[in-house]
Amino acid sequence: MRNETQDDLYIGVMSGTSLDGIDAVLAQFPAAGQPPVRLIAHVHHAFADELRAALFALQSPVENELHRAAVAAQHLARGTAQAIAELLARAGCTPTQVRAAGVHGQTIRHRPDAGYTIQLNAPAVVAELTEIDVIADFRARDIAAGGEGAPLVPAFHDAVFRADHPRAIVNIGGIANITGLPARRSVAESATASTADSVLGFDCGPGNVLIDLWHARHRGGPCDRDGAWAAQGRSDPALLAALLDEPFLSAPPPKSTGRDLFHADWLDRNLARVDPHGHLALVDVQATLTRFTAATIGSAIRQHHPSAQDVVVCGGGAYNATLMRMLREECAAIPVLDSGSVGIAPEHVEGLAFAWLARAYLAGTPGNLPAVTGARHPRVLGARYPR
Ligand SMILES: Nc1ncnc2c1ncn2[C@@H]1O[C@H](COP(=O)(O)OP(=O)(O)O)[C@@H](O)[C@H]1O
Ligand SMILES: [Mg+2]
Q1: Contact 367, 144 (CB under 8 A)
Q2: Alpha-carbon span 176 to 210, nearest angstrom
Q3: Atom 13, ligand 1: which residue's CA is nearest?
């Protein structure tokens, strides 16, 4: 059995807009020194087809959705509890050694413009099944304080990825978000300025969501593995231009988005505009969607964080080799790195961020960055469901 004290072990559980499944991590936060976080174990728990279909259906209005959402939330909670049990078994830990689990839940609607965001979750069930304190509902307080409720990962990116030079972090999940980090401050500078204010972050547009959608529709399966299909096609300039016309892309931050905007109808509307008779080869559409994701990320970095000297990519999109090649082309002179090369594997970053946010909750420390979300104030995020 591990001999860490309870104080430094946290769990983070994330399931993002890709709807691929749950990523759960067990993390240790050393009291002092580097690195600020150490991964102890990771479990990926893929959604069963039935649950994925239920979550997918709930992204837009459906009949009897309150009941369906409550049932799906309980399935999600049982999957989360299983993933947590597996983490503990792998690490040889008991629940009592874990301070808390930060459980994000599954976003099914994200409407900060209407004052809400909905993450399906059943934290009481997770607490009951795991006998671990659960921290959940991280986004609501930021929205209550006038923010977008997203992205919440930039504060964590700042804690773990800050370098001696300005750097951009790109998380390519279903949606892509960017964090712009300034160079690490000298001790003298730190005394006079708030570092959090100079971190920027926002959702820049789709990540894998359209790439996954087109692949699922025409080739089946959850994703264009390694970008192999897109690699065989050619990006179509007219379709690319139509997609880039989307007003969200040029709107100034703070901004956040989701499947509420980038859904199948959005893609089909653009396709109908450019290619009403369906002459475009399917593989060229796949190449265009991959180029579109790379182009929106590249242009967001050029426009909002032009001083970045490197780009660190995390999230599942880091495993799409064609997307990474296109992103390197879009970023031209600056190196594009996989987050694994700077210490944290792409699939671990978001889970670790929610472990970190759970720890911030227990410490009574704000988790949001007002400069990122647009909230009026820093706020402690989340609510606790005791074991
Ligand atoms: N080997 C791979 N090749 C291509 N795409 C991949 C690969 N591995 C993961 N992905 C992409 O990453 C997505 C999952 O990324 P993730 O960071 O979990 O996103 P989210 O946070 O939205 O769930 C998958 O849906 C898929 O599009
Ligand atoms: Mg995922």
Answers
A1: no
A2: 11
A3: 316
- For the segment 168-199, what is each residue's pLDDT rounded down to a tens digit? 999 999 999 999 999 997 666 665 555 556 89
- Domain containing 160: what range? 154-334
- Mean pLDDT to the nearest integer, 245-250: 98
pTM of the model: 0.95
Residue located via tokens 């490197």: 310
Ligand with minimal distance to 16 CA:
1
Protein residue closest via CA to atom 7 of ligand 1: 319
Decide if 223 contacts 188 (C-beta within 8 A): no
Q: For residue 315, report the distance from its CA to the centre of ligand 1, in Å.
A: 7
Q: Which residues form the pocket of ligand 1, taking CB atoms under 6 Å from any ligand atom?
A: 16-18, 20, 173-174, 208, 212, 222-227, 315-317, 319-320, 350
- Counting the structural domains of the chain, the total is 2
Q: What is the DSSP code (8-state) at residue 346?
A: T
Q: Are strands 200-206 and 175-181 parallel, antiparallel or unpaired?
A: antiparallel
Ligand nearest to the CA of 203: 1
Claim to verify: residue 163 and residue 311 sit in the same structural domain? yes
